[in-house]
Structures are given as structure tokens and as C-alpha cells.
Amino acid sequence: MGYAIEASDLRYRYPTAKEFVLKGVDLRVRPGEFLGILGPTGAGKTTLCMCLNGLIPHYARGEMTGDLKIMGKDAKAQTIAELSRHVGIVFQDPDSQLITSSVEDEIAFGLINRGLGEGEVDRIVDECLRDLGISHLRGRIPQTCSGGEKQKIAIAATIAGQPDIIVFDEATSDLDPISVREVFNLAAKFHLSGKTVIFVTHEVELLAEYATRIAILADGKIELEGDPRSIFSKRERFEEFGLRLPQVVQLALRIKGRGLTFDGLPLTVQEARDLLIKLGFDGDGLRDRS
To answer: What is the DSSP string of 79-107?
Structure first.
């Protein structure tokens, strides 16, 4: 099986910049993966996302070297329109993606531009509105909706084109905790349907729960990648990059520091609870098990 995304020594410099933002990214993502990307501010995460859907280099210009293949095809040789059939992206600020005067038109816009018939467009719009639970917003002006509603509209417009890869670039940064969880649940639903999901975020607790693999992008390069349990066990590397570990992992590492041993790290609250019970902890601390 080929790769959904294959980047080799990918480098990029913005037109007015002296330094490269991406400094040799090597990344391979298989179809159907849920890849979480972590990294400090300025690491190049948004730049990498813009490369995936063709905004770089076709819109932002600048200097791009190295190789990038999307669904086996050279990304640099494809137009933004061609890449949009494979890659859909949801940015941090939904207002930057909402361009029409009604929610229904927002979702239909890309479909109409692709030449789909009216009946097919209506069917897809209805399906997207229903799947995201926003059918009641159909006739609303997008700009009058709440932040969480706007983000769901942007997601609906993205998935309407049925891309193979869906990228969330800090798409939950300005949302309340309930809306954040809802967006992750939607991403998980796409993943279960066979889509490839790339999720750039600082929500480490939710990445630990949902991602099948995690990569750390720092100073323009992929510095670390692997399954969540192995990645989150590398406390020193997280400290090096100024990143936070999930709270349950921090707890487990503190317990290990007290000389208690156990296999694997807990990634969820339930796993942490089960571990504490197994080790003999109760509400008052460690029980006497003699």
C-alpha cells in the first residue's frame, strides 16, 4: 500500500524571509492513519499544512525544495484545485474560510464549482448538515453564528468535497472545552470511515486518546514520531521542546519516581484510574496492602 502523504527533505522559505521555515521535513503517513502533530510556536506546523493542500507554493510562492507526494502524486505538479480533491483543511480561524451569505451556500460552494448537479449538491449538503448536527443553521448567515458553530460550518464545507485527507490546523484553539471534544469526535468519525486525519493541536490529552501516531515538529523538522504511548514516555524530549505531557502521563511518571513499577503508560483518565487501583491507591494515598 502506498502513502497518503510522503515528504522527503521538504524545505520552504517565504518570499520575504531569509531563513527556511521547513528545514528538511521527512514524513510518511499511511492511508487511514490519525496523525497528531505537536510542536512549539514557530516550528512550521501551519506552513507544513499549507504545503499539503497546495497553498504553498502555488499561492504563497516562496522557495520550496525537496519532494512531497499526496496520494502518490507530486504535489508541486498539481494545482490547488486538483489537490483540494484529495486534501481538505480546517484552519484555526473559521472566518478566514467562510465566504458566502448562507450556511447552505457555504457547504455547496465547492461542489457547484466542481460541476455537480443540483440534486447531488442538495443531497451532500443535507448529509453534511445532518452529520455535524447543524441542520438548524441552514439559512443562517455564517458570520452571525457562534465560534463553535462557525468551525462546524467550516468542517462541513471541507468534508463536503469528500477528500481523502482531512487536516485540522489548530482548529480547536479558540473553542470551549465541549466544542473541542465535539471536533475531536468528528475527526474520529472521519478516521473510522477510512479517511486520513492530520490533527495539529496543543490538546495533548485528546491526542493521547484519539491519535494512532504522533509526530513532533520542531525548528522545521520532524524530531520524533511514534505511537502515543512511546512518544509520551519521552519526558526529557518534551521538556527540550517546551511541550506539555498529558496530565495522566505526568501522574504516572511521578508514581514511577516513587519507585513503583508498572508496564506501559496510561493515556486516558480511565487507564490512570485502573492503574492507581492496581497499585493500591485510594483517595487518601497508598493503602497498606500487607
So the answer is: -HHHHHTTEEEE-S-GGGT--SSSHHHHH
